[in-house]
Amino acid sequence: MAKKVRVDKWLWSIRVFKTRTKSTDACKKGHVSLGDSTIKPSYLLVEGDIITAKKEGFNRVYKVINPIGKRVGAKLAVECYEELTPAEELQKYENWFLAGKGNEYRSKGEGRPTKKERREIDSFKNK
Question: What global pTM score does this model have?
């Protein structure tokens, strides 16, 4: 009999999501799919399934190699899936990740931004 594990548990155990709750919520919101159909958190994965998970606006595609149910170290987690994400999506993710590394600068003595300044900053960042 093939080993089966819940999709939310598997996504958490291979470190796609930081907590199991976030993994479950992503499934409930329809951010996780098998083929063209979204799946519930209780869907049982088997070896060979191809999962698409949308996280922070990026679509990541994984093939299940080892359906594990317990969270393992990052080096062991990599052995449990195969990354099938298209190259352009990975490039988009890496550009976003590297762009977020820049530090913001605020002159000494200006203190924390006011509520109005914070809204302006957030508006500027979200453009």
Answer: 0.73
